[in-house]
């Protein structure tokens, strides 16, 4: 299926003249059809967000005939930094148990310290189950498991490689 550039350009010209209305309709429809994404915009200035999205659309449509321009812009983008941290406090805070916060935190700490919650009894069976469901028995696969401590964070990484044969 080829891209009908003329149709995209001509239809976007009609939208371009009504930027504010178009973006308001876009976000209204987005939040109505996918209410689960609305919290992602909780701390966002929606006017600025809409302007940035529209500027991106203008850039794409105006350069449909110049893919090198789009390629260079995309190469220049830096991925956002997402830092996900889990602490006992973050887990204990919303826990719906009618006890004091410190007691909830200690309860979680004791639970996570149970001997049964170890890599051999929890993670290895999960990995084995996933592998048997997704790969034929005679296919050679390479599973690399690494655990390290970086700064004050424990990291576990699992990589899977297969032969190109």
How would you summarize the topology of this molecule?
Layout (H helix, E strand, L loop, with lengths): L4 H12 L2 H15 L12 H17 L4 H10 L11 H5 L8 H12 L6 H16 L6 E10 L2 E10 L3
Antiparallel strand pairs: 1-2
Helix pairs in contact: 2-3
How confident is the prediction overall: mean pLDDT? 80
**Strands, count:** 2
Q: Structural class, from secondary structure content?
A: alpha+beta
| Neighbour order of strands in the largest sheet | 1-2
Largest sheet: 2 strands, antiparallel
Rg, rounded, reads 25 Å
Report the end-to-end length measured between terminal Cα atoms.
32 Å
Helix content: 40-55%
Order of helices and strands: HHHHHHHEE
Please count the helical segments. Answer: 7
The proportion of strand residues reads 5-15%
Report the uncertain regions: none
Outline: extended
Task: Characterize the structure shown.
The protein is 53% helix and 12% strand. With 165 residues, the protein is α+β, with helices and mostly antiparallel strands. Strands 1-2 form a two-stranded antiparallel ribbon. Strand 1 and strand 2 (153-162) form a beta hairpin. Helix 2 packs across helix 3.
Essential attributes:
7 helices; two-stranded antiparallel sheet; 165 residues; single chain; alpha+beta; extended; 53% helix
Task: Summarize the structure in short.
The chain has 165 residues and is of the alpha+beta class. The chain is 53% helix and 12% strand.
């Amino acid at each position: 299926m080829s891209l009908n550039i003329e149709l995209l350009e001509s239809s976007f010209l009609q939208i371009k003249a009504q930027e504010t209305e178009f973006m308001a309709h876009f976000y209204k429809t987005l939040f109505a059809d996918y209410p689960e994404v609305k919290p992602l915009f909780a701390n966002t200035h929606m006017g600025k967000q809409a302007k940035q999205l529209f500027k991106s659309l203008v850039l794409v449509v105006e350069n449909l005939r110049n893919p090198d321009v789009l390629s260079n812009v995309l190469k220049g983008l830096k991925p956002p930094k997402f830092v996900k941290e889990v602490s006992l406090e973050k887990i204990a805070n919303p826990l719906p148990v009618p006890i004091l916060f410190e007691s909830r935190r200690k309860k979680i700490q004791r639970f996570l310290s149970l001997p049964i919650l170890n890599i051999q009894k929890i993670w290895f069976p999960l990995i084995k189950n996933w592998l048997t469901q997704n790969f034929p028995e005679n296919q050679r696969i390479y599973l690399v498991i690494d655990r390290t401590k970086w700064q004050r964070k424990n990291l576990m990484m699992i990589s899977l490689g297969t032969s190109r044969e």
